Amino acid sequence: MLMLDRLMALFGSAEDADGSHQSKHHNASELRLAAAALMVHAASVSGSSDATERDAVRAVLGRHFDLSAADAEALIDEVSDADAQSTELYGILRTIRQHLEPEERGAILEMLWEVAYADGVIHDYEANLARRVAGLLYVPDRDSGIARKRAMDRLNAK
Questions:
Q1: CA 67, 130, 150 angle in degrees (round to 5)?
Q2: pLDDT tens across 1-44, in order?
Q3: Is the distance from CB of 107 to CB of 64 less than 8 angstroms?
Q4: Residue 69, Cβ neighbours under 10 Å: how many?
Q5: Domain 23-156 CATH class label
Q6: Are 64 and 35 in contact (CB under 8 A)?
Q7: Of residues 124 and 87, more confidently modeled
Q8: I want to staple 126 with a disulfide (CB 3.0 to 4.6 A). Which of 73, 88, 116, 140 is the partner?
Q9: Do 16 and 23 touch, CB atoms closer than 8 A?
Q10: What confidence category does residue 156 fall into, taking pLDDT thresholds of 50, 70 and 90?
Q11: What pTM does this model have?
């Protein structure tokens, strides 16, 4: 099951007063924005964001949220402008915590590790960010290690 399907199930099927599903859509959009902002931040935290890391961000967003390459790129562009102006990591992580169950937060951490490993080098700032994110998302150390290993395995399989 795709992460987006799990997210939609998580938010339930309650309809707005007008009979639409805008609340679910709003929550899913908010989560996609938060996840994208975190990935863009991870790609740039080492001081440089190269094409390899941007491609990794596009790939993980597309895979986890079932987005086309164009939609993922538009999302990256949207949050890139905001990331340049803000480093409000806590707000991003609060949004993710509010919308995801603990095991789903591990998937977000796995996405972060995949972006961090994309250029083949883990910089100290990237490792520090991943540790902080794991702690702030309440991902246990064991699950954090599993997320890191899965990301490495996925990149090594390419």
A1: 60
A2: 444 444 344 434 333 444 444 444 458 889 999 999 999 999 98
A3: yes
A4: 12
A5: mainly alpha
A6: yes
A7: 124
A8: 116
A9: yes
A10: confident
A11: 0.79
Report the distance separating Cα 157 and Cα 84, nearest Å.
32
What contacts 2, CB < 8 A, 6 or more positions away?
64, 65, 66
Q: Could you tell me if 34 and 104 are in contact, meaning their C-beta atoms sit under 8 angstroms apart?
A: no
C-alpha–C-alpha distance, residues 19 and 108, integer Å? 31
51 burial type by CB count under 10 A (0-12 exposed, 13-18 middle, 19+ buried): exposed
> Could you please report the per-residue DSSP string of 91-147?
HHHHHHHHHS-HHHHHHHHHHHHHHHHTTS---HHHHHHHHHHHHHTT--HHHHHHH
